[in-house]
Design goal:
By secondary structure, this protein is low in regular secondary structure. The chain is built from 2 helices and 2 strands; from the N terminus they run ββαα. It has a domain of 41 residues. Helices cover 10% and strands 8% of the residues. The longest helix is centred in the middle third of the chain and has 6 residues. The N and C termini lie far apart (88 Å).
């Protein structure tokens, strides 16, 4: 089983809890799949990369703040109005005492 050579923070794929794995740990295959940095593993012990299938990605719910998907109905959602723009006074219009 592959061993870590450096500490790694991973998010558990099911519970979404953050886990700190220490050097020398041999994580379970589901946690090992979450570790994307190949340099975290001891020499030539990196687990084989298994690209996620489309079905696995479709089953996962979005985590964190996500924009609505294009399929979702966005009718009734209005964009916030732009803040009013402020203008500057022209630099040559101020009275100065330099001429006096």
């Amino acid at each position: 089983m592959p061993r870590l050579k450096s500490a790694v923070h991973v998010q558990h794929p099911t519970t979404r809890d953050w886990i700190l794995l220490q050097p020398g740990d041999e994580p379970s295959p589901e946690l090992a799949a979450e570790i994307t940095n190949p340099d975290a593993w001891e020499e030539s012990e990196a687990p084989p990369a298994t690209p996620p299938t489309g079905e696995e990605e479709a089953d996962k719910e979005p985590f964190g703040f996500a924009a609505p998907s294009p399929e979702e109905d966005t009718e009734g959602l209005e964009e916030a109005p732009a803040p009013p723009r402020r203008s500057r006074k022209a630099s040559g219009t101020e009275d100065t005492d330099a001429d006096a």
